Amino acid sequence: MDRPRLRFWLTLGLGLLYVAAGIAESVRAVTSGDGGLWFWFGTLVGGGALVLSGMVASSRHPNVGRTLICVGSMMGVLATGWTLVVPLIAVAVVVLNIQKPTTD
């Protein structure tokens, strides 16, 4: 798989994963009464929204898009750090998005 395609799919997958996990954790926090709603919603749904909006913005404003993707990826790492796999995917997304595009 070439690098732009890998970057696109990993970034999209991470953004959607963050939003889905954020919604699930927010529902769990509300129904169980454990608290932490703003943490789960803010870090996961907020981070996922930033990642997805960065994907949209990167076609017109590449630096703004990269910044949104990097900030959103790192926001989600706060809540998913215990999984070990998701933070590695987030780091890969950041590295792939920071690299300059190659002209083949």
Q: In words, what does this structure look like?
A:
Keywords: Membrane, Transmembrane, Transmembrane helix. The chain crosses the membrane at residues 39-57, 69-98. This is DUF4064 domain-containing protein. Helix 2 runs antiparallel to helix 3 (62-80). The chain is built from four helices and no strands. The chain is elongated, with a radius of gyration of 14 Å. 81% of the residues lie in helices and 0% in strands. It is mainly α.
Short account of what is shown:
The chain is mainly alpha-helical. Helices cover 81% and strands 0% of the residues. The longest helix is centred in the first third of the chain and has 30 residues, at 3-32.
Key features of this structure:
104 residues, mainly alpha, 81% helix, elongated
What is this structure's SSE topology?
Elements lengths: L2 H30 L4 H21 L4 H19 L4 H14 L6
Helix pairs in contact: 1-2, 1-3, 1-4, 2-3, 3-4
Organism: Nocardioides cavernae
Keywords: Membrane, Transmembrane, Transmembrane helix
Protein name: DUF4064 domain-containing protein
User: What overall form do the CA principal axes indicate?
Assistant: elongated
Count of helices? 4
Q: Regarding quaternary structure, how should these chains be classified?
A: single chain
Q: Tell me the series of helices and strands, N- to C-terminal.
A: HHHH
What structural category characterises the helix and strand content? mainly alpha
Number of strands: 0
Q: What is the gyration radius calculated from CA atoms?
A: 14 Å
The average pLDDT value, as a whole number, equals: 91
Beta-strand residue percentage: under 5%
Helix content: over 70%
Protein name: DUF4064 domain-containing protein
Organism: Nocardioides cavernae
Keywords: Membrane, Transmembrane, Transmembrane helix
